[in-house]
Amino acid sequence: MSSGTTARRMRAYRFTLDPTRTQLDTLAQHAGAARWAYNHALATKLDALRRRQLQIDELVTLGLTEQQARRDATVTVPSKPQVQKRWNQLKGDTTRGGDGICPWWRAVSTYAFQSAFLDADRAWKNWMDSLTGKRAGRRVGAPRFKKKGRCRDSFRLHHAVNDPTIRLEGYRRLRMPRLGSIRLHDSGKRLARALARGGRVQSVTVSRGGHRWYASVLVDEPDHTPGRETQHRPSRAQHTAGGVGVDVGVHHLAALSTGETLDNPRHLHHAHTRLVKAQRALARTQKGSHRRRRAAERVGRLHHQLAERRASHLHTITKRLATQHALVAVEDLNVQGMTRTARGTLTQPGRNVRAKAGLNRAILDAAPGELRRQLEYKASWYGSTLAVCDRWAPTSKTCSTCGTVKTKLPLSTRVYRCDTCGMVCDRDINAARNILKDADPVAPGRGETLNACGGPVSPSAPHAPTARPSEAGRPGHPARSPRGNDPPSTPKTE
Ligand SMILES: [Zn+2]
User: Fold this and answer.
1) Which strand (E) or helix (H) includes residue 456?
2) CB 384 within 8 A of CB 323
3) Which of 54, 93, 379, 438 is deepest in the core (most CB within 10 A)?
4) What's the gap in Å between 333 CA and the centre of ligand 1?
5) For residues 352 and 129, what is the distance between their CA atoms, to the nearest angstrom?
6) pLDDT at 490 over 50
7) 363 CA → ligand 1 middle, Å
8) Model's pTM, two decimal places?
9) What are the tens digits of pLDDT across the range 442-479?
10) 404 CA distance to ligand 1 centroid (A)?
11) How far is ligand 1, taken at its centre, from the CA of residue 405, in Å?
12) Distance 430 CA to ligand 1 centre (A)
């Protein structure tokens, strides 16, 4: 990835859509079809798994060992090609008056079904890999059925890359198969430029957030930062600015080793009153009523607004850090561990539970994990390097000038005063300076290199639970589920 101009990368361009009323219906219809297809594929798989297990049990009673029975069992769990083939036989067709399992399929782009079948494959594979220990990280539970109103309304469309049917019309309209031309709320100029530079549209994911629909166009584009011949090299300005240490926190959203602090916008805190009101109103409505639907919409809209604001603020910060510095150093935070509840157990209840819950909320509102994730890919985009500092390094307690380590430094002490050399500075800025000193660079596009114990992890180990278009993972092309993969003898759901 370090040289040559032919390297390509995947990048997503997200747009807010301005659909007409008719188009809104079509969008909802597609999301419904994708949900139906996912559930259908999952049901097919679960049924096959059940039948396979029955067959294995039968073979075992006939005197075979468990291992032999697994090998000889003829029932396998179907993956996308088989699911689709069977679906084609069973689907029926309204235009021919025949009844099948989904005779309405003609109203919807076939890609909505196909990508949902693929998604089911991926969910199944993640579950199996997690059960058999092939997958690192937290355990993945069994895939669950999607329910209208509970799951995210979303679908993905593909096309033939050489004969693109997903394309821009001018800067203001996006044409997609079956959906027609939908007006964009924002300008499509960025995408148009990417296509002019030799980008090729791979797929589009359309999803609803609150009251809005979004289209995320995945583009396979040549990887060169404009104005720079070689990639992944810092610009002169970045060189001059050098490295920056970033201490992510709650008091400040981030403190930089340069002495600057970035305020925490505390989006959740500001939206809290309105959220509480909306949720209370929802709780007071009758189940199944129109008012309840409207109240739920309002809650959803507020949550969505909050998420959008948080994301946009973080994007601004991470882009600035990545474009202005040759190296960005962050701490390797264990966000999940940091935000664990203080509730304790029934026999040993925890203390300060409410206070800890409030702190957890504040930490998650600042979204330190997301900040890190964005820095990871943006650093490689803009020729900067990401460096990560060991999770257990005493960055707050160490003096950044002389290196003396204090034994104690309560959270309430906002200013660091060194008893040895007399250095006085903001506690978070002191930490940011130490982070810059201690951090080790991460190879671009490698993702996390440290596990919970700070030891190196094989770079090929899977790490991201959900692949983002901006990372190495390609959501449109999940790994094929192994055909007839051996189900575990007792599939456990957590
Ligand atoms: Zn000192």
Assistant:
1) none
2) yes
3) 379
4) 25
5) 39
6) no
7) 29
8) 0.77
9) 754 444 433 333 333 333 333 333 333 333 333 333 33
10) 6
11) 8
12) 10
